[in-house]
Amino acid sequence: MLSTFYADTFSLDNRFFRTMRQLLVPGRLTTLYLTGRQQPYFQPLRLFFVSGLLMIGVYGAVASTAIGDSLERSTENKRSEAYQKVYSEKLIGQVDSVRLAFPQAIVRQATDSLIVSMGRIENDSTELGYLDFSQGLGGTTTPFIISDQDYILLTPEEIVTKYGITGRLNRYQVKQLVRLNRMNLSDVNKLIGQLIWGLLVMVPISALLLKVVYIRRKKKYVAHFVFSLHTHSFLFLTHFLGACELAIFGTPYLIIFGTLASIVYFVLSLKKVYQQGWWRTLIKAFLLMWAYLFLLQLVAFVTLLTWMVLF
């Protein structure tokens, strides 16, 4: 079933190229679809998913290239330092037994140098904090200090046990905090992949905004929904091209141009589909974009928060 879904979604046939040609003209694809000419073109939801996955896929590759090596290197360095501290502590702990077995002056001299050398390895620590709900729903911020050695080498479960974190919710908070701070490249890619669902949520929300703003046009909600899918698809495709340029040449010109082009495209699409004068269209476009950006931040926050809770 999944293979059939992917084959149907990503297959490129004549309908794909016809759809792209009509999508480039603001409002035309939506108008054709709403007047019943649906068969020759991609379904709006299918177009949304294809364009969205293309955009997120390339942005994910760009993020992997940009932060992948540094993130992996930083994690490996921290782990190496933690193991070095463990080794130095064990080594220094054996000094007394070595001195008893070999009481010569040269051995004492060598072990003194070893202690001085190993003592230069700082035993750093990290301060973490969580909301303690054990005294009520208000929650109080409770900080605690954890050695970097434990922070790197112990599992989240071992950390909350060793440092005496009590209460199911308190232990859960600390474990999630440790996991988030240990994020690797794979986790970053998963987070980027979750964005498609946040963007999908924005489609019915923006359709509802259109329904409210154009309440007198007597259009059904599904018409606003289709319009929203098509305008989002155009935005995704322009950013897909911009992300490709960023990945290949390292320049953001197409991203900037695509964003500006999408704003113009949105205004012209409103004019084409809803058939109102320029002043009304411009005012409503401004209100819609302002509301959209506000709600987009809210949805992005909820998506990120959900991902952090389920991570």
TrEMBL record:
Pfam families: DUF3667 (PF12412)
Residue spans crossing the bilayer: 47-67, 191-214, 221-241, 247-268, 289-310
Keyword Transmembrane helix: yes
Keywords noted in UniProt: Membrane, Transmembrane, Transmembrane helix
Transmembrane helix keyword on record: yes
Top-level taxon in the UniProt lineage: Bacteria
Xref: InterPro entries: DUF3667
Name by which UniProt lists this protein: DUF3667 domain-containing protein
